[in-house]
Amino acid sequence: MATKANTIELFSISTPQMRAFHLTWMAFFVCFFAWFACAPLMPIIKGEFGLTLAQVANINIAAVAITILVRLIVGPMCDRFGPRKAYTGLLLLGAIPVLGVAASQSYESFLFFRLGIGAVGASFVITQYHTSVMFGPKVVGTANAAAAGWGNAGGGAAQALMPLLVGALLMLGVREALGWRVALLVPGVLMVVMAGLYWKFTQDCPQGNYDDMRAAGIAIEGGKAGHAPAGGWESFKAASANHRVWLLFVTYGACFGIEIFIHNIAAVYYVDHFKLSLKEAGMAAGSFGLLALFARALGGWVSDKLAMRGTINSRVTLLFVLMIGEGAGLLWFAKADGVVFAVIAMLVFGLFTHMACGATYALVPFIDSKALGGVAGIIGAGGNVGAVAAGFLMKGTGDIAQTLTILSGLVLLSALCAIAVRLTAAVDDRPVAVNNAVA
Length: 439
Fold this sequence. Notes:
Elements: H1 16-36, H2 42-49, H3 53-81, H4 83-100, H5 107-117, H6 123-134, H7 140-171, H8 176-183, H9 185-201, H10 210-216, H11 232-240, H12 243-274, H13 278-290, H14 295-309, H15 313-335, H16 339-363, H17 372-397, H18 400-420
Helix pairs in contact: 1-4, 1-6, 1-7, 1-9, 3-4, 3-5, 3-6, 3-11, 3-17, 4-5, 4-6, 4-9, 6-7, 6-17, 7-8, 7-13, 7-14, 7-16, 11-17, 12-13, 12-16, 12-17, 12-18, 13-16, 14-15, 14-16, 15-16, 15-18, 17-18
């Protein structure tokens, strides 16, 4: 009987674990690319629709607000229906507003489709769920962080590539008003293609798909033989009763929430504050997102190594230190008075931010393995709550630099929640294995 993998064979797709690993980060990359494809084009869109800073803030809030609800729903859905069905459905449904935003003709219609696009941000929860059920305790932190980090890089790729795509279309003679719309069709098409690949080549867990396992009477992690784990409402209730889930909800809001906020405002900030061109601002903003290629994985890897040499609370201490570094780096970025120092500061605090995200989800599999979907969903939603709160803060201050300064202080305070997560000896640093013995 297949079990969780305790090694990551990076250049292999011969096992269901590695197929899930590679396809889930690819699906996440495509979703994040689609989610943030609009952000680097906002200077163009802002001019076309005559948007105010308050309206830009509304669009940024809409881009992440709906994700809160969808993340809360999709985690328990993974427990109930399996990550394969959940991801395929999200990719197909999410492609609709991604394609629709290219047809918007006003601020209102753009805002509506931007709200819908936010749903694809829930892809993160499915990615973390799928790697959590496929990999064992020796490497689960690394697997979670690497898959999420490489997927997150889709946001950075969008920042860098979308302006170049628009530029290429303009060189071909396409008008700017049409060019950004044509460019935004690309991520929607990619999502449809990815849905087909995910459905065909992945399975829910090492033994197979949940439906087949139920029919055969095989136990599913955290559940009884022939039944799903605490799926749907039961999974959510079990997770929501755990105070550590809510502490990590706050810390994830302070790291991933900041990451999303920076993705949405970086290009506009560099154009307005430092007078960069659209392409220059896109490259600067894109460098922040591309840190995810290694930084989030580094956070998970360090968490795994510290836990092996110390205790599970070594993971907690790491998260605390990373949150302190993030807050200090964000303050430096807010106070930078030149574009060179701003980019350097952004990369420094971005390193801490991405690593903190990885360290957070290196803890997730150990909070409550019987309600993994609920835990992953609630903590994941915390990231979007943080981004929405940051959006409202920017709308209230009317100044991005001032907003960043206030956020740096809030991040430092949230580090206290990180250290408060400390786990007792009763919490085992070994998630429940997926096998017939689980009942």
